[in-house]
Amino acid sequence: MLSTDKSTSVQLSQTKQPNKVAKFLNSKKVVPYVFVSPFLLSFLIFTLYPAIKGIIMSFQSVLPGQVEFIGIRNYERIFNPTFYKALGNTTVYVVLTVTILTILPILFSILLDSKLVKGKTVYRAALFMPALASTIVAGMVFRLLFGETDTAAANQIVGWFGVDPIQWKYNAWSGMFLMVILASWKWMGVNILYFLAGLQNIPNELYEAADIDGASRIQKLWYVTLPFLKPVTIFVVTISIINGFRMFEESFVFWSAGSPGNIGLTVVGYIYQQGIQQNDMGFGAAIGVILMIIIFVISLIQLFLTGAFKRGDE
């Protein structure tokens, strides 16, 4: 009898256990974690782990079959003329692209949101198409447009004004122009859509009240439209800055073998040059850590400007 009772109790405990597991999985508390788990796993595997691995590698000398801890020696090598050149190029690129990809999208979005433009749905679909194109493929087209020959489209246009053919990839100003115009072409439409969404969230009552007060179009733009576009503007500026510091393809597509005088060298390009081409993975990782710190600080500034650190009652 005792053995029978024990076996029965074991069977009951085994049948209760799956029920508890099923009840736990079906509970409302678990559902949010189930939906978040794919993102969390991808973040841990593809973002957090490589970041930690890169930080560890930045304190090492990594050679084929040989890994040696060398302390901060890689960081001592970073601040050299080539790094300053790459950082300077990247900073100029960021300033130009942020200016263009913020001011022009605001103006174009206001125009598209007005009653002057018909068929807005078609324009919205067309604006997103450049972002879907591969930067490498688009860069190849731009290389043909801005070729060094007299028959290149860009040189033909400047020739109409009596300007000699320009060696676009061999001058500092024109090389920067190539990278900026490629990035602007690719991301202009996306930023216009961001601002269009922001414009549609502005209550019409505010414009009606401004009309009653006798406000001009400029005054409505300055005192109604732009203040309500501030969150979108901060977001667009932040992602433009981050994408600018992460820029690599726009430079690589024009100077895959290296630019003359490093006129097209960026911070990420310098990481690729040192870590991949010269097989100095530790030094490349150290540069990547510096870049990660820069982007982290920019993200903190964005959170501060959007009020993420304010208390709920403030």
UniProtKB/TrEMBL annotation:
What cellular-component terms does GO give this entry? plasma membrane
Q: Which InterPro entries match?
A: MetI-like, MetI-like_sf, UgpAE/MalFG_permease
List keywords of the entry alphabetically. Cell membrane, Membrane, Transmembrane, Transmembrane helix, Transport
Location in or out of the cell = Cell membrane
Q: Which Pfam families match?
A: BPD_transp_1 (PF00528)
Q: Which domain of life is it from?
A: Bacteria
Q: Which GO terms describe its biological process?
A: transmembrane transport
Residue spans crossing the bilayer: 30-52, 92-113, 125-146, 172-197, 221-246, 252-272, 284-305
Membrane topology, record value: Multi-pass membrane protein
Q: Where is the ABC transmembrane type-1 domain?
A: 87-302
Family as reported in the entry's similarity comment: Belongs to the binding-protein-dependent transport system permease family.
Q: What is this protein called?
A: Sugar ABC transporter permease
